[in-house]
Batch of 4 targets.
Target 1
Amino acid sequence: MTTIYALTDYKGNFESKYNAVPYNSGMDKDLLKKYFSGFGFEIMFVKFSDVINYPNAFWPDKIVIYTSSEDTGYYYKSFIEDIIFHLELSRAKVIPSYKYLRANNNKVFMELVRHQFNSEAIDLPTTIYGSYEEIKKIRSELNFPLVYKRAAGAMSRGVGIIINQVNLARKIKKISKTPNLLREFWEYGRSLKYKGYIRESRHRKKFLVQQYIEGLNGDFKVLIFGDKYYVLKRGTRKGDFRASGSGIRVFSREIPEGILEYANLCINILDVPNASLDIGYNGKSFFLIEFQCLYFGSFTLTYSDFYWLRTKHNKFELVEGKSVLEEEYARSIVNRCIQDESTFCM
């Protein structure tokens, strides 16, 4: 029986689950063992901190799945990134690949990953910045309105609209500020001592800016686990364009024609076994607003009474019934990444 190594955090948690018991404890590990075993695979849970106890020669071609973290300050997530990058360098089959961990709760790197695919289908006009000064230099060239996003954050925190240059200065300074009074004192002293010295910016938190898309009154959260697609319509509050975090959620079997095909195109481009896609639709075109390929919310799967099943001919059939997160996660890993020996393992 092939062994899959599942890396857990310092609490012993694996991945995320909306209705986990106890709260915020991730997927049920006993259920994961059960379902992976049913598919013919053994799962072994290993803590991130124990990875270094294995010799490098152990990891080539070993199948590794793992969790991420949304800890305050992302300190533990940084540790996880070190471990997963090490395993990729050791030629383990890390699922998903390190780039998607780096992109998790990091919207700037997510846009860089999107940019790498060079695909018009999932492209959005986006610029990224590492300081306020960088966008300040070109503010007269920008076409408003624009959407700004702080690199880290969920539920639309740190996301808003910029309508003019004055608005830009106020909002971008707010989301990018990096105050440090002692450092600012030393920088001021250096500017007096050294002629021409440019002070360190007080606004160095990275962020991105996108062109505002007209005609959106919400978006669709689409969760994909292998060949099963779960769709949730998310609305917006009056006077607010943000759907994530609005609390306006509707499960409906009536969805825009073509959205499942578009979601299928997106996940084929991403090359992952499961994903969470935020898809916008303005009545004419679909837009991939954001994506996550691990550690995403499972509300849409957990509370949906139906799903769409992708057939061998890439058609979609509506299926009535509930799903179990651990089962669908295990199935997506096994069927798409292992038994098919597809590129999704790379």
Note: The chain has three domains: 2-95, 126-211, 215-345.
Target 2
Amino acid sequence: MDFDLSIKGKCILSAEDNEVNQIVLEHTLAEQDIPFVIVSNGEEAVEGWEALDPLMIFMDISMPVMNGIEAIKAIREKEAVTGKRVPIAALTAHALTGDKERMLEAGADYYLTKPINPNLLLQKIAEIADTGSTRAIL
């Protein structure tokens, strides 16, 4: 997959296979002028992480080719070599007892349930950027 390397180190990477959720993410991030890349499966998420060095990743858990948990584990294994760690927020419709713990054990730092709430998404970005403002990550 070809990535726009002009946003390397400055973007949010989102792995999401659902078209409606992709649109919500796209509109939410674009309205805030936050550089982003949306991919459709976990394999592309790992490739995007390697190519773009994103500021953070929103990772859907149920995706084709490679699911989000497998992608998170692959990224964390590769990070063990680099010594860097990107914040990863699991985005999922899985909200049963134990789901949050399973995703955190896999290496996710945060857990957000779907449907995607744009305000909560921006709040999480600001929290991860540790500034209280999404503008600070640009």
Note: The first strand starts at residue 12 and ends at 15.
Target 3
Amino acid sequence: MFSHNIDLNQKWDVDFVSFSPIFSPLKIWAENFSQFKDGWPGLADYQAVLSALPKPILTQNGKALKIVEQDGKPGHFSEHYAPRIFLSGEIQTRTENWHDFFQFLTWFMFPKTKAIINAIHIPAAQERIESETDLGRRSPIENMLSLFDEGGAVILCSDDSMLQLIRDFKWKELFWHRRDELETKLNLVTFGHALYEKGLSPYVGMTANCILLSVDENILQQTNQQQLDYIDNELAALFSKGDPYKKPKDLSPFPLLGLPGWDKDNVNESYYDNTNYFRPGRKRK
């Protein structure tokens, strides 16, 4: 089905950005590692890219982001993953790990939004960790932000009727009957680092949890970096005010491989008859 798949346990593949359209938004940042032909970049190489920025990436607490090796089990609040980023700027990173590599790159792509998502988690996380009661029980907005941070995407669209097709789960009408319009009217930009990781070995079933942004046509004609800046500013504003995205179901499911060019098999109309993937809607109790 797919021409490229990466075994996530294999060594680094410098050509991963060419394997799927999912990687197009991060290509300009991945180029910082194009010299690594024979093996993984190290954490010092990650930090070198951070240090070369004209301005540091800052957390909401004003700390410059920096790469550190992943530690063992945290002993107190400040040593947990998200609090450590917020309080010290230190992002714990595993070596030779695709998940953490994409997490690293998304900070370059969406620095304001990543910082705000991190900051929103802190008060509730501190209460759970310090009370030592049900550490995994997060609030609806925390769950939504985690879902988006891991598996989210943003859809920029200049045609509100197409956005409504997404909300209504009208996949065949969107992907097949309006196929010729997708290239000029809609652009999907992946946000979640776990979703990028899935893109290394794509499969029918891959679904993004999306924020839908109605935009003017000129936004869709911008360069990749201009679009990333636009998205970063829009998301930062949305998450800062906490509306309308408050819980996981506020995000719109989107079957990624329906997009033209994302799976070589979707050139056939029958591809979109798979209702296990192109579902007619959320199940209701």
Note: Residues 22 and 105 are 14 Å apart (CA to CA).
Target 4
Amino acid sequence: MEIHGFQKTTLLDYPGHLASTIFLGGCNFRCPYCHNASLVLYPAGQPTIPEEEIFQHLRKRAGILEGVCITGGEPTLYPGLTNFIHKIKKMGFLVKLDTNGNNPHIIKELTQNGYLDYIAMDIKNSSAKYGLSIGINNFNTARISESISYLLSEPVDYEFRTTVVKEHHTLEDIIEMGKWIQGAKAYYLQPYKDSGDIIQSGLTSPSKSELYQYKDVLSSYVKNVFIRGID
């Protein structure tokens, strides 16, 4: 596994649990607003962390830490992901996976084998504008829809989430996303923030009033809608 980052302790990444977060490099999307651009565009140029260093920390923190978050980049691109998560599960930790949802067969395999306890899947935009928000023209969203449908069947605890970008999302897009995931148990909106390590400059966040308007509209489709990451 090409591990390029490790946050030893977090109360934010895994809802309700004290966890560590592992960052993997590489992604099959090129979202202009991505806040981990170096991991996506130049993973080979990033420092790596040996797996054993991760496992040593987890062994030391057993009984204190509850879970491990695996994020990226896009973790489902790694052939060794299943074995890696299996090792973490054998140590007694909960595992949360962050994913863009474009590899539904991996999500299903991991879930059906009991390797995942929580999945956070990004919904980038309405289906018609998905390509804009992932940097891929004429993108076919069939596999995104497959992952959505699978999570809606509740095989594991999950959330959907969208980074809202003023230049990418209109009220109509928000409504279409709400319809796409209608009946979901949880949907989080998070305003775009310039991390200083992004793919495209010049993007901005919607206002607080716009975010709350989006939240109110989405409540017609998803019972539990939250705004994450505002002051």
Note: Strands lie at 3-10, 19-24, 67-71, 94-99, 118-122, 157-164, 187-191, 225-227.
